[in-house]
C-alpha cells in the first residue's frame, strides 16, 4: 500500500498505473484509473483531472492508446449552450518491450550456466517489471534451470571492470581459475607452483553457448586468446595502455567478431583453416546449427554430402569427435589423420575398460 500522495503527483501515479496494470489485453477506463488512484495511492482527485493527465501524458510522448467515441451533443447547464463531447475509454500503454522480446531475454538468463541462481532471479524480476503485472503472473509457470556457477556477484563485477578497461584502452591483470576434484575453483598455477598472473589486452566481451568470454591478447604473445569470464578473479585495471588489436599479425585491418565467433564454435583460440569433411544427411541440421550458412556443399549423393568450412583446428577436432559416426574429415590430411587417431585412441580406451 502506498502512503497518501499530493495531488501534484497524480500524473506520475497515473503513469505508474498504466505501466503496471495495463496492456493491449487489459485496458482501463478513466473510472477504473480514478478508483485505483484512490484505493492504492490514497489520492483523491476529480474525475476530470484523470482525463486531463492522461491527455498530458500522451502529449508528452508516451505511447498511450485508447478508444474514442463519436462526439455527442449535450446541454451545458452552466453556460446554457449545447456542446460536443467525446468519451475516451479503454486506456493502455504500449510497453517498451513486447512480451515475446522479454521472454527471449528471460530465456537467455534461465539457460545461462554462468549466472548464479540468486542473480538469475533478480534479473528476471527486473525484466518482469518492464511490463504489466499480467506478464509476471504467466511467467510463474516457467521453470528456471539451476545455475552451475557459484553463488557470487563476481561475474558482474568482472564485466563492469572489463567494460571500463576496454573503453579506456587499458590493460588488466587477473588470476584465472579452474576446478579441482574438491569441486572448488582454484587459481591456475605455473609449473613451479606459483599462482599465475595474467596481464591481458582486452578487446571484446562475447557470449557463446551460455557463457561469457573475454576476447583479448595475452601480453606475452601476438595472437588472440579467449578466457571464460566466470573463471576470472581478482581483476584490476592497470595504468598501462592496451596493445591495439590491429598490431596483432593478421588483424592489421581490424577484428571481425561475427566471423571469429562462427569459426570458433567451442571458443578455442587457435588459428582457423579450411576443412573438408563428408557428412551423412542426417546431421545437416547440426551442420547449420554450428556453421550456419557459411558451410559450402559439394559432391551430394542420396545419403551424404561433402562440406567445406573454415574453422579452428581444435574446434574441428572436438566437433568431429562429437559426430564421429556421421562425419569423416578428409582435408587437410594432417587433421584427418589427427581425427582418426583420436577415434582410435577412444576406441582403445573402451576396449581396455569394457570387457
* Relative helix content: 25-40%
- Strand proportion, as a percent range, falls in 25-35%
H/E element sequence? HHHEEEEHHHHEEEEEEHEHEEHEH
State the distance separating the first and last CA atoms: 70 Å
Low-confidence segments, given as residue ranges, are none
Q: What is the helix tally?
A: 11
Summed up, the domain count is: 4
Mean pLDDT: 85
Radius of gyration (CA) equals 30 Å
How many beta strands in the DSSP annotation?
14
Reported for the largest beta sheet, the result is: 6 strands, antiparallel
Structural class comes to alpha+beta
General shape: elongated
Report on this structure.
The chain is an alpha+beta fold and 355 residues long. The protein has four domains: 7-93, Arc Repressor Mutant, subunit A, CATH 1.10.10; 99-133, no CATH class; 154-255; 272-353, Alpha-Beta Plaits (2-Layer Sandwich). It contains eleven helices and 14 strands. It has helices at 10-21, 30-40, 47-60, 99-110, 117-128, 133-139, 154-168, 257-263, 284-291, 313-322, 333-353; strands at 64-68, 72-76, 81-85, 88-93, 170-179, 185-187, 198-208, 211-218, 225-228, 232-241, 272-280, 296-298, 304-312, 327-331. Strands 5, 6, 7, 8, 9 and 10 form a six-stranded antiparallel beta sheet that branches. Helix 1 (10-21) crosses helix 3.
Q: Helix and strand layout, with pairings?
A:
Blueprint: H1 10-21, H2 30-40, H3 47-60, E1 64-68, E2 72-76, E3 81-85, E4 88-93, H4 99-110, H5 117-128, H6 133-139, H7 154-168, E5 170-179, E6 185-187, E7 198-208, E8 211-218, E9 225-228, E10 232-241, H8 257-263, E11 272-280, H9 284-291, E12 296-298, E13 304-312, H10 313-322, E14 327-331, H11 333-353
Antiparallel strand pairs: 1-4, 2-3, 5-6, 5-7, 5-10, 7-8, 8-9, 11-13, 11-14, 12-13
Amino acid at each position: 500500500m502506498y502512503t497518501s500522495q499530493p495531488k501534484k503527483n497524480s500524473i506520475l501515479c497515473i503513469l505508474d498505473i498504466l505501466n503496471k496494470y495495463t496492456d493491449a489485453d487489459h485496458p482501463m477506463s478513466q473510472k477504473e484509473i480514478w478508483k485505483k488512484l484512490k484505493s492504492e495511492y490514497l489520492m483523491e482527485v476529480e474525475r476530470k483531472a484523470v482525463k486531463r493527465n492522461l491527455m498530458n501524458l500522451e502529449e508528452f510522448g508516451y505511447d498511450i492508446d485508447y478508444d474514442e467515441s463519436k462526439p455527442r451533443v449535450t446541454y451545458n447547464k452552466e453556460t446554457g449552450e449545447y456542446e460536443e463531447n467525446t468519451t475516451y475509454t479503454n486506456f493502455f500503454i504500449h510497453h517498451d518491450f513486447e512480451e515475446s522480446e522479454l521472454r527471449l531475454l528471460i530465456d537467455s538468463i534461465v539457460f545461462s550456466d554462468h549466472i548464479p541462481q540468486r542473480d538469475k532471479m533478480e534479473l528476471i524480476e527486473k525484466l518482469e517489471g518492464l511490463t504489466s503485472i499480467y506478464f509476471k503472473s504467466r511467467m510463474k509457470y516457467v521453470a528456471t534451470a539451476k545455475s552451475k556457477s557459484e553463488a557470487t556477484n563476481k561475474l558482474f563485477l568482472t564485466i563492469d571492470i572489463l567494460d571500463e578497461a576496454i573503453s579506456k584502452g587499458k590493460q588488466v591483470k587477473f588470476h584465472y581459475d579452474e576446478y579441482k576434484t574438491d569441486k572448488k575453483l582454484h587459481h591456475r598455477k605455473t609449473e613451479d607452483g606459483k599462482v599465475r598472473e595474467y596481464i591481458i589486452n582486452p578487446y571484446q566481451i562475447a557470449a557463446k553457448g551460455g557463457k561469457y568470454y573475454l576476447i583479448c591478447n595475452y601480453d606475452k604473445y601476438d595472437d588472440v586468446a579467449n578466457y571464460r569470464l566466470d573463471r576470472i578473479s581478482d581483476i584490476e585495471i592497470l595504468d598501462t595502455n592496451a596493445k591495439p588489436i590491429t598490431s596483432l599479425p593478421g588483424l592489421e585491418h581490424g577484428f571481425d567478431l561475427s566471423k571469429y565467433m562462427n569459426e570458433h564454435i567451442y571458443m578455442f583460440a587457435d588459428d582457423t583453416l579450411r576443412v573438408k569433411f563428408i557428412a551423412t544427411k542426417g546431421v545437416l541440421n547440426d551442420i547449420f546449427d554450428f556453421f550456419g550458412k557459411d558451410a559450402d556443399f559439394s559432391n551430394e549423393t542420396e545419403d551424404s554430402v561433402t562440406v567445406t568450412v573454415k574453422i579452428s583446428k581444435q574446434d574441428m577436432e572436438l566437433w568431429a569427435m562429437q559426430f564421429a559416426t556421421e562425419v569423416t574429415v578428409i582435408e587437410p590430411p594432417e587433421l584427418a589423420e589427427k581425427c582418426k587417431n583420436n577415434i582410435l585412441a577412444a576406441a582403445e580406451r573402451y576396449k581396455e575398460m569394457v570387457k
